[in-house]
Design a protein that fits this description.
Layout (H helix, E strand, L loop, with lengths): L1 E4 L7 H16 L4 E4 L6 H9 L2 E4 L10 E4 L6 H9 L3 E4 L3 H15 L3 E5 L5 H7 L5 E3 L15 E6 L5 H14 L2 E4 L5 H16 L2 E5 L5 H12 L3 E5 L15 E6 L5 H11 L3 E4 L18
Parallel strand pairs: 1-12, 1-13, 2-3, 2-4, 4-5, 6-7, 6-8, 8-9, 10-11, 10-12
Helix pairs in contact: 7-8
This protein binds iron/sulfur cluster (SF4).
Length: 300
């Protein structure tokens, strides 16, 4: 069996920054350091930080007064910051700067008098944070929801969740631009999402099966699996080698492997070890050179 690795894969700059923030907070502040929502959607990352003294909670009201809390990379609605202030919490915000950009766009276009449509997935943490910035209509491609029934000439701005499928999002945007006459489109899919999906498309040209390594609740991992299937290749999303089924590989000679933006490379290496392939090669892909600065209080 031959294995082909997608490039790029694994951690993006927003995930690296969020993990660094928790680690630096653990170095500097009393334990436990609370983390509101999983810092990134990966159980190994969460467990590793919890073993060092982090404690993950879903609700700000579950954090003892005066404690330090890191808000996750996915972004948070203003009401969570207000709750934290009422409880006297020390908040360190690990929201990815590319998500913060979407929050800023939402407030700006709303102040300009435009009605907002967010193309995103109902229930995802990032969508919760973005929807909290101002009033907006959510369009979710999974339930085939339509553009809202506003007047045709309503000034509209379209924002997107950062981790959606490039192809599905462009279909939703076309539907909106076909429905309203005055539309500003901000395609907010981030560089990491776009590059990893492009790499999966390349893998799907040369492999019989693709393994996406990452968590079930990771939006960008799920999209990678869907992109592989949309390009005609059987694909599975697994956390690690324990979740592989040997029957998947009957008659398979070429396996593609990629991983989502929140997946540690160790998990990819563990899967390669378990497959014990004859060869491992990497495809040509975008060389990402992106990093984000830390919050001021953690910079030395
Ligand atoms: S996937 Fe994109 S938006 Fe999400 S943390 Fe990474 S860079 Fe930021």
């Amino acid at each position: 069996m031959d294995v082909f690795l997608g490039i790029p894969r694994g951690f993006c700059a927003g995930v690296v920054r969020a993990i660094n923030i928790v680690e630096l907070a653990l170095d500097r502040y009393p334990h436990p350091v609370y983390v509101k929502h999983q810092i990134v959607h990966n159980p190994y990352v969460v467990q590793s930080l919890e073993s060092k003294g982090a404690r993950t909670v879903e609700d700000v009201d579950d954090i003892p007064e005066g404690a330090t809390v890191v808000f996750s990379a996915h972004g948070s609605p203003p009401e969570d910051f207000e709750k934290a202030q009422r409880r006297g919490l020390h908040v360190i915000d690990a929201t990815c700067p590319l998500v913060t950009k979407v929050h800023n766009e939402a407030r700006r276009y709303s102040n300009d008098g435009r009605k907002l449509i967010l193309v995103g997935h109902h229930g995802h943490q990032e969508v919760r944070g973005t929807m909290g910035q101002t009033s907006m209509h959510l369009m979710d491609d999974r339930d085939l929801s339509s553009p809202p029934g506003w007047e045709d000439d309503t000034p509209v701005a379209v924002l997107t969740q950062t981790t959606l499928s490039v192809d599905d999002t462009s279909k939703s945007i076309s539907e909106i631009t076909g429905r309203f006459s005055d539309v500003v489109v901000r395609n907010d899919l981030c560089y990491a999402t776009t590059n990893r999906q492009e790499a999966v498309k390349q893998l799907s040209q040369i492999t019989d099966l693709i393994l996406v390594i990452g968590a079930e609740n990771s939006s960008n991992c799920n999209r990678l699996r869907e992109v592989a299937e949309a390009n005609g290749v059987r694909a599975y999303l697994i956390n690690g080698p324990d979740e592989m089924d040997s029957r998947w590989f009957d008659g398979v000679e070429k396996v593609g492997i990629t991983s989502g933006a929140s997946t540690p490379e160790d998990m990819v290496l563990a899967v390669i070890d378990a497959l014990a392939p004859d060869t491992v090669s990497t495809i040509d892909g975008v060389d990402e050179d992106v990093s984000f600065v830390l919050p001021r209080e953690l910079r030395d």
